[in-house]
Structures are given as structure tokens and as C-alpha cells.
Predict the 3D structure of the following.
Amino acid sequence: MKQLVTLVSALVLCSCTSEMPVPEIPPHPTTSELLAMMDTGDTTSTEIVTELLRRSSESANLNAYITVDSEAVLARAAELDEMRRQGHVLGPLHGLPLVVKDNIHVAGLPNTAGTPGLSEFTPEIDSPVIAALRNAGAIILGKTNMHELAFGITSDNAEFGSVANPFDTRTFAGGSSGGTASAVAAGLAAAGLGTDTGGSVRIPAALTGVVGFRPSTSRYPISGVTPISHTRDTVGLIARSVADVLLLDAAIAAPEISQASVVPDRIRLGVPRAYFFANLDRQSATVIEAALMQLEDAGVALVEADPEGIEPLMSQSAFPIALYEVARDLPAYLNEFDIGLSLSDLAAAVASPDVQGIFSTLAGEGQINEESYAAALTAREDLRVVMREYFEAHNLDAMIFPTTLLPARPVEGSLQTVELNGAEVPTFPTYIHNTDPASIAALPAISLPVGLTADGLPVGIEIDGPENTDGQLLAIAAVLEQIFGYSARPPHSE
């Protein structure tokens, strides 16, 4: 396992903590809390960065990071602190440190995408989403670990190590954005970015007890991101609260969102049990049903209804689209950024066995031809119609269901299969079962933490809205979050 992480030195920590009181940074801070503390002068960006770097160093066993340039981060924090003292605030995120999945370009930091072949690639310019966040005043604290090339849901990375779940470090954090989720869940950062092709923001958010937002596919720019599928890929947000997601979303998308008219008894949510609740883990089911009862008690209308025929449309579209597009999008990316590798070069260097298998499929009989791809796109459009008609027919604002069919499982032995209700089931398709439809249909989706299993592992509940209703979905999620009244805290928290 290779380590590129460079965390803050003991010398820097001593110089920052011995001459002044240690700021009372919350053990699991939200972005709102940190921004408020800086606004009132209770702390500085430098103090926040120093504390988060200290925590990251002490929690190195989580393997949340691939790269952290502590000197550059501290220098930028000092610059922003001085700007604030002079009355110049860049924007609403001034001085806020964020973490970024290592497949999203950050100028001056390696963009490994979790794979050996890209370990020497350092972008010269920020991706548009990073540029937007920096323009709002954010600092990039570090690049986070991930499932290799984003081709998996465990973040068990053979090159950079498996990302551990803060609730039980024997279990995986989910993926492919596992490093960002683990860092936020453990209090090493208040929020961060991931990417989501089939559930890669929502799955790790659910498994680590934080909030994960996948916007409608066209909401955020996707350039400057190591791709899988231009049809399905999007940058997503991971945070501790919906309010924090709203802050970051506003910086990237500049939306106009009004929550004034969103009250519990005006919300109608579909409960699609036939597809999304089938074979649900028994412990997870207990938590999910309790959460649904909370919503009913608060006046939310729950409509027991299912979209028709989504299972065959999913099987006809999901993997054919991804396999066809990655075989074209990834070579185009390598060429655009003059990385000096062919797709076969990149594939030859892949370290993780499951990802090796995907590239073997691409090179062999699993190749998708033009005819199959066209049929997959037709199925995708049919799925979008089905979802649109589902929301309209039942007058629904969104639908609600378990984010994943089961909680996190042990890293050891989960590469191919995991246990679900007493049976061994395939790992990857089981975990993306509920998240993939929104990815295919381009719907906005958000996962909220709603409780823990009897074994102490987080359970997430997902809300999907009609396409391009991101603002409404976030407003509904904020109301539901208040009703649930739940915030997950890993054991042995400060």
C-alpha cells in the first residue's frame, strides 16, 4: 500500500497550540458552526485547519486521505485570516476547509483517482466546481481516498488502503467516495465533495451516518473530473446537515431556493416498496419503518405506490451505458489532459482485483457495441418517462426509501459477496440497487441518516425528486431532517 499523505508536523502543532488557547472546535463540526465561529471572531481559519489536521493525523487508521499538503493549507488559511482582518471577505465560505475526492481536479495537488497509473498526474487548473468553491472563500484541506477509479462501492483500495468506517473500523465506509464520507463522519472535516455515478455519494453517506446529495445530473459542471460515464456522472456533496449542503450547493449552482412554503402537512412522498424495500436487511428495516412513522406522525403524507416496470429498464440501461461510455470517456480524458497514458496503460496498472475485472470485461466479450448502447439509451429515456409519470400520477413531491438494502459489512471477505438476511449476495449490485435508478433517470437525490442498527451501524433513508427539482428536494430534506431529529456520532467521539 502506497501512502502519499503528508499531514501537519508536530512542530507546527506545538507552535500553534502552546502559545494560545486551543479553540473549542466542535468534535463533529458543521460548516455553519465553523463559519459562524469565524464570523464572530471566536476562532480563525488557521486554528480550524490546525485542529482538523491534528485530528486527521490521530485518525490515520481511517485511511480517509490520499494527499494533504499541510504547509500550503496553513498558508492559505493565514492569507484568508489576514484578508478577514482587513475587512475583505471573499464570499460565504471564507476560510472554510473542505475535503475533495481524489478524482476531482485541484490545481497543484495530485489527482490519482485512487489508481497507480495516475499517481504522477497533477492538474494545473481547478475543476469548475473547485473554482466556484474557492471563489466563495473555501480552502481545500486535502484529497480523499476512494474506490479505485470510482469503480466500486466499498472504497477497499489495493493501492492506497481500504477506507475504514468510523462507526466500526473493521467495516468499510462505502464508496466510491468513501474517504470524504469517513472524514466528515469522524469530524476530520465539516463537509466535502464526492462523485456519484450509481450511488457513490449516497452509499458512503448512508453507511457512515452523514448527509449525501446527488444533484440532477446537469446541475454541476463535470469537467475536470476523472470520468466513468458522461450520461451518469456528477459531482455530489457530503456534509453533516442539509443546511450545509445548501451552503455548498449555493456556491456551486447559485440557486434561488425558498423553503417558506414547505411544511410537513404539505409534503407528499411516495413509498415504493416493491422494488426499493425488497429483501431489506432486518435491522435496517426496523430503523426505516420507525423513521416513516415519525413522518406520518408529523403530518407528512406517505403514499404507498410503485413506479411500474423499472427493474427491466434498469437492467437494460445501467451497466451497458457505463461500460460503453467509460471505454470512450476515459481515453478522451487522458488525451485532453495530456497524461501520456492510453486506456490499456491505465488498465495494466490497476491494483484492485475487482477493478481489474471490470477492465478485463471492457477488453473482452463484455464490450458494448453501438446497437446495444443505443438500446440502453432508449431504456434510459423510458425510465425517465416512468419516473416522471409516477410523480405526476400520485401528485408526489418526492419518493422515500432505504438508501441501501443493508448497512456496512466487514472489509475482510466482502470483495465479491456480502451477507444479507442469511444469504450471500453480490456486493456491488446489492449496494447500488436502490441508488442506481436516480443516477440513470438523472433525478436529484439525497440520503439522510435516521438511526443505527442494533449492531451500532448507520442507516440512511433516501429521498428522490423529479428531475431538476433540486431546490424543492433540498427544502423537503431540511424539513424531514428536523422531523427525524437525528445526528449520528461515531463511538469514542470526543
Q: What stands out?
A: The two ends are 29 Å apart (CA to CA).
